[in-house]
Amino acid sequence: MLKVENLDVWFGDLPERVHAVRQASFSVAAGESFGLVGESGSGKSTILRAITGLAGGWSGRIEVAGEAVSGRHRSRAFHKTVQMVFQDPYASLHPRHSVDRVLSETLHLQGMDQIDARITRLLDSVGLGRGFRFRYPHQLSGGQRQRVAIARALAAEPRLLLLDEPTSALDVSVQAEILNLLSDLRKDRGLTFVMVSHDLAVVAHMCDRLAVMRGGEVVEQMAAPVLRSGQAHSAYARDLLAASSSYRRESA
Amino acid sequence: MSDPLLSIRDLRVSFPTRSGLFQAVRGVSFDLGRERLGVVGESGSGKSMTGRAILGLVRPPGKVTAERMDLGGQSILNLPESKMRALRGARISMVMQDPKFSLNPVMTVGQQIMESYRLHSGQGGRAARDKALDMLRAVQIRDPERVFDAYPHEVSGGMGQRIMIAMMLAPDPEILIADEPTSALDVSVRNEVLRIMDKLVTERGMGLIFISHDLNLVAQFCDRVLIMYAGQVVEELAAKDLHNARHPYTQGLLNSLPRLDHQVDRLAVLQRQDSWRDQTPPLRSGA
């Protein structure tokens, strides 16, 4: 479904060029859920942005559903296959567009028919009732906004969803609801996920396999059960796991 | 705990809104000794507002009332701003969530620490400079001379947060209120910042109020935990007993977290109950 080979991503021009990603390679099979974990600045979100054409300069090879993409332009077909959900539902929805407008505009852009019926179905599928259709973002809670953002991503009926920290701006109880929703959608629609998160427990819960990143490089790839059992090969991955699962007091 | 640093009874914070009075904090009571007290809850539970009320940072038209709010035996409830200024920083300090928004972007780090210290101690510039460098060393900044002359945008998030802590601790306060001090930080830096605060509590005998949404972190870091829901404390327990929590809300929060050591198909979803809003007094165990 997705193949990334020797991906380099950089920002700015020489001599002040910053390399955000170096020689990253991984592939994700159809129907699989793949995680990218690492600390801030490790390049995990930048990879997603490069795939969708939002990142500056990049080199290497990105293949989506068997087709290589190039530069920053993405075809109409690409957007029908790949959609992205962003971290901050407070920033990713237009404050003066109602839910109805957000979804109908997206559906229209994707060249869909029966827009009215589709909006109703989309809202149902993300667990928002019809009553939410004419609300504005400020009338929604963070969790409800993220549901709208997910509905918008689903409008194109994509096969690959790129999830950039979809729950890190939310409370834990709301996070549980959104993660359950995403799992259900993946099962029902046979979606492929690439999920970026700094939260190892969230990635272990949601993903089959994952890559640990550090300073723009993929340090290690492993299956989720390996992460759970603490049998990562690289010292960095083990350190990250230890740091995120506990804080130990030095003083008694 | 015979002699609490801070004693609060029936603290209430309310804001008038178009649809009537909104009560953000509805009768919170606790004592703080020389300990690490965790305050946990979801967004909107009133935990930050409790911290702000203690520091007198609730702006009008917000109203703060309490039966008692004593710092070392003296009432600090609704003090005039001039008196509050003398307390704030000197005796109670606060570290906010995001260093990017709480440091002055056009002043060097050193100047900012010196300013807060000189204001409260009345010391001269030379002494303040030495103190600032000492404080930077105390929060384990390796190259204090360089950081002293740096601007906030030139330091990383973790370093920014350590600078905030250095600044807050320069006047040697009795109480530090830390509002989500590590939520914006990476795990490796987070543990470093926690270790610094931990050491300061144990070595200086400071009282720490640690406000966080992260139950597991609080359980590991604090001595005692208050769990807040809808402006009230619904449960109080010793941190080590967190996993034996009795309140369904606390249990619900714990269960809704994905865990590395325990795989589940679906995460448990919190079913909120109206009765949680009106349950007083809080459940207590072990504390």
From TrEMBL, chain A:
Enzyme superclass (EC): translocase
Catalytic activity: glutathione(out) + ATP + H2O = glutathione(in) + ADP + phosphate + H(+)
InterPro entries: AAA+_ATPase (IPR003593), ABC_transp_ATP-bind (IPR050319), ABC_transporter-like_ATP-bd (IPR003439), ABC_transporter-like_CS (IPR017871), P-loop_NTPase (IPR027417)
Protein's membrane topology: Peripheral membrane protein
Membrane found in the keyword field: yes
Subunit composition and interactions: The complex is composed of two ATP-binding proteins (GsiA), two transmembrane proteins (GsiC and GsiD) and a solute-binding protein (GsiB).
PANTHER family reported for this sequence: GLUTATHIONE IMPORT ATP-BINDING PROTEIN GSIA (PTHR43776:SF15), TRANSPORT ATP-BINDING PROTEIN (PTHR43776)
Family: Belongs to the ABC transporter superfamily. Glutathione importer (TC 3.A.1.5.11) family.
Full protein name: Glutathione import ATP-binding protein GsiA
Organism listed in the record: Paracoccus litorisediminis
TrEMBL record, chain B:
Residues annotated as domain ABC transporter: 8-255
GO CC terms, sorted: plasma membrane
Biological processes annotated in GO: peptide transport; transmembrane transport
InterPro entries named in the record: AAA+_ATPase (IPR003593), ABC_Ni/Peptide_Import (IPR050388), ABC_transporter-like_ATP-bd (IPR003439), Oligopep_ABC_C (IPR013563), P-loop_NTPase (IPR027417)
SUPFAM superfamilies, per database record: P-loop containing nucleoside triphosphate hydrolases
Keyword rRNA-binding part of the UniProt annotation: no
The UniProt record lists the keyword Nucleotide-binding: yes
Keywords of the record: ATP-binding, Cell membrane, Membrane, Nucleotide-binding, Transport
Membrane protein topology class: Peripheral membrane protein
UniProt-listed Pfam families: ABC_tran, oligo_HPY
Family per record: Belongs to the ABC transporter superfamily.
Protein name: ATP-binding cassette domain-containing protein
